[in-house]
Amino acid sequence: MSWQAEHIVADEGVPFDDRGLSYGDGLFETILVRDARPVLWEAHMARLARGCERLGIAPVPRALLDALPDRAGDGLRVLKLTLTRGSGGRGYRLPDAPEPRLRWHAAPFAPAAERWTQGVRVRHCRLALGIQPQLAGLKHLNRLENVMARAEWQDPDIAEGLLCDAQGRLVEATCMNLFWQRQGQLETPRLSRCGVAGTLRDALCQRLEVHEVDAHPEVLEQAEAVWLGNSVQGIWPVKRLDDAHGNARMHWRLDERYRALQAEAHALLGYPQPSASATDDNRQQDGDPST
């Protein structure tokens, strides 16, 4: 296929036979854009290219992609790109000459800034992620597991749910990556079997000494600090972890241990730096014991 500008369109109706709609046959990216300047753009483009190669979808020329942030608008926006293999094929069989489609949509965005300083409550999910190394790391369109996991709770006080794979290893949250500090060392789950390799996660792993590990949920009981993060929302410190039934399992106080990772992430994203007074005030108000 030879990509042309007309193959890239603003958000509109999806044809009934589009393979992304029918089978989740495609990829997507959600990109923070500040006054038409995309954040971590190269990392997003690299992940999209890896996904195209892995799925065998014709890569989108960079010249066409690079023109999109200018069309996102002023202020803080989120630009979403959805790439599908296009239409055709009989059943799961690939079309003989696929014509991929790339749609884009930009919307105003306001981050949940109070979660940067006040921290969040999270829970374990009952759903276990399937293990599929061929899709591991990609931001593909098959996100039904995440949808089902997110449906496990409705309590607005719970910000996220933690997911394990079918063998009980920690992977990620429903839409964020997971980090923790144990014995002074930063760690994050290895994503070679399933899960999404976030662009912020990759950037932090390149800049800091973050160890990718195979770990079960019990490791969080040894953690001095826990975070969730992605390239749109930034870094949320975790202050409470519940089990899948809503019972509190762990509490963490928000002290100076939280600030270094958040400072590095927010410098990359252009978000405010963590304030010592903010975390110290939170520590004074939180009656829960620290780990």
How many strand elements?
A: 14
Secondary structure class reads alpha/beta
Beta-strand residue fraction: 25-35%
Total helices: the number is: 8
* Share of helix, binned: 10-25%
**Strand/helix succession:** EHEEHHEEHEHEEEEHEEEEHH
Task: Give your account of this protein's structure.
The protein contains 8 helices and 14 strands. By secondary structure, the chain is α/β, with parallel strands linked by helices. Strands 6, 7, 8, 9, 10, 11, 12, 13 and 14 form a 9-stranded mixed beta sheet that branches. It has a 5-stranded mixed beta sheet with strand order 1-5-4-2-3.
Secondary-structure map:
Blueprint: E1 8-10, H1 19-23, E2 26-34, E3 37-38, H2 41-55, H3 62-66, E4 76-84, E5 101-108, H4 113-118, E6 120-129, H5 144-150, E7 158-165, E8 170-173, E9 177-182, E10 185-189, H6 199-207, E11 210-213, E12 225-230, E13 234-242, E14 248-251, H7 259-269, H8 276-285
Parallel strand pairs: 1-5, 6-7, 6-13, 10-11
Antiparallel strand pairs: 2-3, 2-4, 4-5, 7-8, 9-10, 9-12, 12-13, 13-14
Helix pairs in contact: 6-7
